[in-house]
Design a protein that fits this description.
- It is a single chain.
- The protein is of the alpha+beta class.
- Helices cover 53% and strands 14% of the residues.
- The longest helix is centred in the middle third of the chain and has 27 residues.
- The radius of gyration is 23 Å and the shape is globular.
Length: 236
């Protein structure tokens, strides 16, 4: 739970040096990385990287309550990624959000402003008689929203807390049977390729899953050839 994770140490102003050192020592003993922050900076930080994502995931997932079965049948990995944390405990998160209400509200107000801009832009697009008649400002607002998201996600720390990296992805069909995923991972190792990341998707209506194997650039073709030689079905 704690190994390699940041452990924020907040001084109250009256905290003794001995007390702060004891807390930092506890964090290190548990394998965590002590980080010193003020209470205000901590609250603002967790609001944007933890608390608001929970609220947004829950809001998106709540839209699914009235969705048709046909619509839900079209759901892909993107929806699962966005709503993964939406099944969190309501009582726990009510307590967390109430305790950090001010910082969370500030982020949500900014998010609401962004949403209002996108809604207005989509209204202009909806009223247009064709793609060529959409006001340029509306299209720019939509494009800038997506682009700012690209910029933001690129700032999320990558492997081992380092700078984020772009990987090549090899997608492999994995039978939904005991030991198959382990066999795939062993074959990746036998191919002499380091697995940088792994994501699993489930194919609708088929007893197979799709394993998205991330590798460093320049190694995907070699891995594809090695896995194909070992009988794996690849998705191009």
């Amino acid at each position: 739970l704690f190994v390699g994770r940041p452990w924020v140490v907040v001084s109250s102003g009256s905290s003794s040096t001995q007390a702060l050192l004891a807390v930092r020592a506890l964090a290190v003993d548990l394998g965590a990385q002590p980080v010193s922050m003020s209470a205000a900076d901590h609250d603002a930080a967790v609001a944007v990287v933890s608390h608001v994502p929970q609220v947004v995931a829950s809001l998106v997932a709540a839209r699914l309550r009235d969705a048709s079965d046909d619509a839900l049948g079209l759901a892909g990995q993107g929806l699962r990624d966005v709503t993964r944390i939406a099944s969190s405990d309501p009582a726990l998160w009510t307590s967390i959000l109430a305790a950090n209400a001010g910082a969370v509200r500030d982020v949500l107000v900014g998010l609401r402003g962004d949403l209002d801009g996108v809604i207005a832009a989509l209204g202009l697009a909806q009223a247009a008689t064709g793609p060529e008649t959409v006001e340029g400002g509306a299209l720019s607002t939509i494009a800038q929203t997506i682009a700012r998201g690209n910029t933001g996600v690129a700032r999320i720390p990558g492997k081992h807390g380092g700078a984020p990296r772009v990987y090549e992805v090899v997608t492999v069909l994995v039978p939904d049977s005991p030991g198959e995923l382990a066999r795939l991972l062993a074959d990746v190792g036998h191919a002499g390729v380091n697995l940088e990341d792994l994501q699993l998707e489930h194919a609708a209506g088929r007893p197979v899953g799709m394993a998205n194997v991330s590798v460093v650039p320049g190694r995907s073709e070699h891995l594809e050839a090695e896995l194909a030689a070992r009988g794996w079905s690849l998705v191009s």
